[in-house]
Each structure stands twice: as structure tokens, then as C-alpha cells.
Amino acid sequence: MMNSLRAANAGAVEARALTVVRGDRTVLSDLGFTVEPGRITGLLGPSGCGKSTLMRAVVGTQAKVSGTLDVLGRPAGHPSLRARVGYVTQAPSVYTDLTVRQNLDYFAAVLRPGRGHRAAREEAVTRAIGDVDLTRRADALAGTLSGGQLSRVSLAVALLGTPELLVLDEPTVGLDPVLRRDLWNLFHSLAADRGTTILVSSHVMDEAERCHRLLLMREGGILADDTPDALRTRTGSATVEEAFLRLVEEAVTTEAVTTEAAPATAAHRAAADEVTPAGQETTR
Ligand SMILES: Nc1ncnc2c1ncn2[C@@H]1O[C@H](COP(=O)(O)OP(=O)(O)OP(=O)(O)O)[C@@H](O)[C@H]1O
Q1: Which of 197, 216, 195 is nearest to 205 (CA)?
Q2: Tens digits of residue pLDDT in 93-132
Q3: Pocket test for ligand 1, best of 49, 218, 276 (most atoms within 8 A of CB)
Q4: How far does residue 264's CA lie from ligand 1's centre (Å)?
Q5: What ipTM is given for this predicted complex?
Q6: Which superkingdom heads the taxonomic lineage of this protein's source (predicted)?
């Protein structure tokens, strides 16, 4: 991957002409964006638009990436980023036959091996379990936890190394409203108190309102890169969901004019159907 000049005051993530091919398809095409440090950036868009692929590229686990993608001033995937970037995938990566604390102990030992780091590891584990509000379940077998609790164990693992950048792929799927609120409060305190940069994907539009900035995606491209307020104002919309639908409508109309393809209304309906309305979640 090409990497050019890296300014000291660059964003936490800088993408230029970022393209990703999966199989025989170009699933991300010529993306350019900056993720501001110490802020929460939401990655939103319909299922299949490329959110997970973009996150995989940022954490360096995606093949066939071209263009420029810098993370914390280094090329994405650089070995020095391992301890500086936390990543939580959609599927919880937790050992079900270990307790919550044993899971954390194990991953802490991988991150910081050696007897000399024992006290620091114990402190990090206790802090991470507290961060995700699982202190009372610390000695429960992971296999006996609910789906939402398991997701929080995964998040605790990602918090172990006190990452500067936290990449979260739909962390609130399957969580009840109270847990979702608590998690979003945690994200905000991580950004405000620890200066953690958070890149979080969601297809639930009401979560967009909780982000400092939004990258709205559609069909492998960036439809908008702005604050929720600016998006609402620019499109004359009451909600980010409405703003997103207006932007889709504009994009579809432009495409229809240039390609004289299928009627815009049908394409718009298809795109809009893929967006989950505020407060609802899809099951998969
Ligand atoms: N191995 C693969 N080979 C070819 N195409 C793939 C492969 N994996 C994913 N894709 C395609 O890449 C596109 C982007 O997928 P991705 O998982 O990044 O989307 P997403 O926005 O995260 O979706 P979701 O919200 O459902 O998780 C989709 O159209 C998907 O079909």
C-alpha cells in the first residue's frame, strides 16, 4: 500500500483513494475520509454497504486493499499498531468454558506476557471488567452469560490494552435499550476522559445521533462525512435517518440522470428498505 506524508496533527485514521476488492467485486471504491482523534465517529449505512470491510481494512485484517490508509500515523496493519488499536467484531470472541475473569486474564497475558507484568495485568483486567459493568459476573462461566453480556466481555478484551483507537463493529446488536444506553455512555466517557478515538458501526439510525461525526455509507462509497447537526441542517431534516434517506434520494436521482437506468423511485425504495428505522434492529 502506498503511504505518503504523515503530518503530526493528522487524523486518527486517514483514507485516500481507498479501494477494497473481495472475491471478484470491488466492495469499497475510492474512499477518502478522516477520523478525528478523541471523537466518536459513527459508520452508518444499510446492510452490505461495506461497513465491516472498512473496519477490517482499518485494523489491518482485510486483503486486497489499495490506496492510502493510515492509522495513528502508521500504515493500517503495521505491527506497532497491535497494542494501540482495539477491535471488536460482530461475533463475540470469547472462550465459553472460562470465566469472565479467566478470559480477560488469558488475553492480558497474550498482550503483556511475563511475571514482571502480573500486577499491571490484574489491574487492567479488573478495570476492563468494571468498564463494561460485569464486576458482579466476573466469576461466571462465559458460556452461562447472555448474548449481550458476551458482547461486553469481547469489549472488555478490546479495552485491556487501553487502546488509542477502538474499532467496534455493531457493538449494540441484540442489546436491550438500557444496556445500549450504558454502552454509549461508556463510549463517551472513553472519548472524553481517556481521549480514545472510537470508530463504531451501526445500522440503527438513532445511534447516529449519539456520535460526534458520521460517515454515511452506501454501496461501497461515502455518501456524507459530517456532524449529525450539519447533516440535519444541510438536508432540512428533523433526524439523521431522514437526512440519510434524502441523501440516498439525491444520489439515486443523480445516478438515474447519468445512467438513464431504472426509475429512481424504485431504487430509492430498495435502498430505504435496507435501513433499519430508529430504535429497531434486524435479526440475522
Ligand atoms: N468474501 C467475500 N467475497 C465477495 N464479496 C464479499 C465477501 N464478503 C463480503 N462481501 C460483500 O462485500 C460487501 C460488503 O460487506 P460488509 O460485510 O462489509 O457489509 P456491512 O455493511 O458490514 O454489512 P452488515 O451491516 O450486514 O454487516 C457485501 O456486498 C458483501 O456481499
Answers
A1: 216
A2: 899 999 999 999 999 998 888 888 999 999 999 999 999 9
A3: 49
A4: 24
A5: 0.96
A6: Bacteria
